[in-house]
Amino acid sequence: MEILAFGVQSDEKPLMEKAFEGHHEVRCLDVFLNEDTAPIAAGYEIVSSSVNASLDNRVLQTLAAGGTQMIAQRSTGFNNIDLEVAERLGLTVARVASYSPYSVAEFAWTLAMAVNRRIVRASTRTRDFDFRLDGLMGRDLRGRTAGVLGTGKIGEAFTRIAHGFGMNLLGWDIAENPACAALGMKYVEKERLFAEADLISLHVPLLPETEHLVDSTALRTMKDDAILVNSSRGGLIDTKALVSELREGRFTGVGLDVYEAEAGLFFVDRSLDAVEDDILARLVTFPNVLVTSHQAYYTVDAVSQIIETTVRNVLDYQAGRRSENVLVPALPRT
């Protein structure tokens, strides 16, 4: 059987082909799965999608009509998939429930340190042989307060690094993580976390109840010199409200690896295109803002784990097995 994989990056392709070797052939496409590309999947029983795929009603209808029976998403998040429609159409949907939490946690810290110590600005200057220090002053993090929203595996990894820096720890989640509590984390209401934290990092999934978790009220509650980092999902932040606060000269730095309207933008070259997204265009002009293109997970360790899990999901589907990765189970075979 040949598997059709959408949205495969060039670095990812050899890992994908090697992982499927001995099991199935895999056809890797660099285009993302959406309404325009879904017809390509006609005749493929199993399709693999990436995090920036758009699997809404129309796309799922097209896949089902073309004979697709299983979707193996190569990500933890699944807010881009209409699961109710998939279930109605009899499509099996699986994801990657977990992979290296260190990849994302370490990158979140990379963003935090980069905006705190003005690394991008400093690098740009030195390339022009400008070695002045004006405007590059950062802050020690030791003794300051880190606020972590979402203390699962990634949030815990982030917290351990914060503890290593000697920071005070505040956390917010639906359930306390004993490992974080053992490090001295104090769980508080999110309003208090927003008000007291010097560094705020987001590690919660994007759900209806967490959409715009960081809204205009939360942003106004934060310290004027706070650092805000988001390496989870773009929809957690009301970006329009964030731009308004940045225009007032607030925040030491903002590091964003995700953006709420990133679909169709991230993972592709738009350098020669007219910028149609006014909010993103304004966002990247602020000198205290660093935007990267959803690359926090992008280490050989994490990507290898994601692909290996995807292969297992395909094999489990064929064997009629169900694991924690299955979001919509297979219909009984007749």
From TrEMBL:
<feature type="domain" description="D-isomer specific 2-hydroxyacid dehydrogenase catalytic">
    <location>
        <begin position="8"/>
        <end position="327"/>
    </location>
</feature>
<feature type="domain" description="D-isomer specific 2-hydroxyacid dehydrogenase NAD-binding">
    <location>
        <begin position="110"/>
        <end position="296"/>
    </location>
</feature>
<protein>
    <submittedName>
        <fullName>2-hydroxyacid dehydrogenase</fullName>
    </submittedName>
</protein>
<dbReference type="InterPro" id="IPR058205">
    <property type="entry name" value="D-LDH-like"/>
</dbReference>
<comment type="similarity">
    <text>Belongs to the D-isomer specific 2-hydroxyacid dehydrogenase family.</text>
</comment>
<dbReference type="InterPro" id="IPR029753">
    <property type="entry name" value="D-isomer_DH_CS"/>
</dbReference>
<keyword id="KW-0560">Oxidoreductase</keyword>
<dbReference type="Pfam" id="PF00389">
    <property type="entry name" value="2-Hacid_dh"/>
</dbReference>
<dbReference type="GO" id="GO:0008720">
    <property type="term" value="F:D-lactate dehydrogenase (NAD+) activity"/>
</dbReference>
<dbReference type="InterPro" id="IPR036291">
    <property type="entry name" value="NAD(P)-bd_dom_sf"/>
</dbReference>
<dbReference type="Pfam" id="PF02826">
    <property type="entry name" value="2-Hacid_dh_C"/>
</dbReference>
<dbReference type="InterPro" id="IPR029752">
    <property type="entry name" value="D-isomer_DH_CS1"/>
</dbReference>
<dbReference type="InterPro" id="IPR006139">
    <property type="entry name" value="D-isomer_2_OHA_DH_cat_dom"/>
</dbReference>
<dbReference type="InterPro" id="IPR006140">
    <property type="entry name" value="D-isomer_DH_NAD-bd"/>
</dbReference>
<keyword id="KW-0520">NAD</keyword>
<dbReference type="GO" id="GO:0051287">
    <property type="term" value="F:NAD binding"/>
</dbReference>
